[in-house]
Amino acid sequence: MRAADAPVKLDVESLRVFREVVASDGFTAAGERLGITQSAVSHKIRRLEERIGMELMRREGQSVILTADGRDLLAHADEIIDAHDKAVDYFQRSELTGTVRLGCNEEVAATQLADVASRFRRTHPDVSLEIRVQDSAYVADWLDGGEIDVALIQVLDVDDAVRSTDEVWRRDQLRVVQGKIADFDDVATVPLISFGPRCLYEPWLTTELDASGRAHRHAMECPSIQGVQAAVEAGLGIAVLNTPNLTETMRPWAGLGSLELPAVAFVLRTAASQASSELVDALRHHLSAALSNQRARL
Q1: Residue from 283, 298, 294 nearest 103 by CA
Q2: Which pTM value belongs to this model?
Q3: What is the longest distance spanned by two Cα atoms in the chain?
Q4: Confidence at residue 222, expressed as pLDDT on a 0 to 100 scale
Q5: How far apart are the first and last CA of the chain?
Q6: How confident is the model at residue 95 (pLDDT cuts 50, 70, 90)?
Q7: Closest CA relative to residue 168, chosen from 51, 66, 288
Q8: Domains in the chain and their CATH numbers?
Q9: Is 157 helix (H, G, I), strand (E, B) or coil?
Q10: Alpha helices of the chain — where are they, by DSSP H?
Q11: Cα dist. 173→154, 156, 265 in Å?
């Protein structure tokens, strides 16, 4: 460990490994995401602890638990890495030229897209980034049809929906909810609120309702997260939402008793035809960095 009077020296790459271990909840997964071996990850973490003179995390099986000092360092690591990467982006200019096309759903567009697009433009000033925003089902069709090169989408985490080549951003739980002012548990016909005809969640819910003999109707279709949230809170019907989009003015719907809902995965997916494209690799690099940062904050 560090001598008491020795200065603390941090390096950005060790902090980046530390942050990815936390985000991936393990040394092996972090190594896979960063393209280095598990032993290299362990060495980076050990050296970081030696330089700071404090234990940062403990292993529990395949998972890691941050110490109090580790949690404090994580907050500083985010700031240091972000400042470093922004400086590098500002002064580093690539010679790539051409067009790269990105598709994503509204949730991604609202939380990550502006910053990623801005940093990508600074680093690759001669590359045209074209962005299309729509429900995940449409974006997936665009990708498979060759209309876009990279997609950030949601898929239900069942069967083989998550492909081996996907980079998983995060996984959320799904909940069937109603407004606190509403009570649709025992109504004769259940009013549904969905994101539209290509909604990922609705087919699952309507199948469960049909199997139980519960009548249902469409009370509202809206492609906007904010619109669906407002409709649920106003008591217009029930909806399936992923956990980050639940609010304090919603409560569980118990009309089908205890339900086992599938998880939903947010994935970064590349068109098969673009697997070796320098432009796509550059965009994926920016997207992966942004998603890794958000995973660490969750």
Answers
A1: 283
A2: 0.69
A3: 73
A4: 92
A5: 30
A6: confident
A7: 288
A8: 12-90 (1.10.10.10), 93-172+265-297 (3.40.190.10), 174-262 (3.40.190.10)
A9: coil
A10: 12-24, 27-34, 38-52, 68-91, 106-108, 114-123, 136-144, 202-212, 225-233, 278-297
A11: 12, 10, 9
